[in-house]
Amino acid sequence: MKKVLIAIDYNPNSQEVAEKGHSLAKTMGAEVCLIHVMAQVAHYGMRYPTFMGYEGYDAGSVDINVANEMREVTKNYLETAANHLNDPGITTHLTEGDAANAILDYAKQWNADLIVIGTHSHSVLEKLFMGTVASKILEKTTIPVYVVPVKKDNT
Fold first, then answer.
1. Other CB atoms within 10 Å distance of the CB of residue 123
2. Which residues form the UspA domain (predicted)?
3. Would the pTM of this model clear 0.70, i.e. be above it?
């Protein structure tokens, strides 16, 4: 395995995912890329006709640069996470959209040999209605996945 893609989000448990994924990659002598997927924020700035009683936002009260600012904040987060791992060879990738699909798409594009993801403790209802990124990736992947269980210890 030569390329390991590590998916991180803003959850503090991402530190454990990044560190364990990086350690595994270094054991294999593999290249590492940290990926973070932003929810698509650009469409919130679109001016649509009224629908479901919603008339849209007041352009004067919304900063139209929010999406760009969020991208910059996220780029900084990825760079900081990469620096934390103290490995100058780490690359980062920021993308937008559905997290599972975006991770799988980039994994194929980057020719990843392994995807590292974490699992979070979610409520049963949340899992039932929304699923989880991890389960969606496991359902659709053709690339091996290393899952890091990150749950709060309730003992």
1. 9
2. 1-149
3. yes
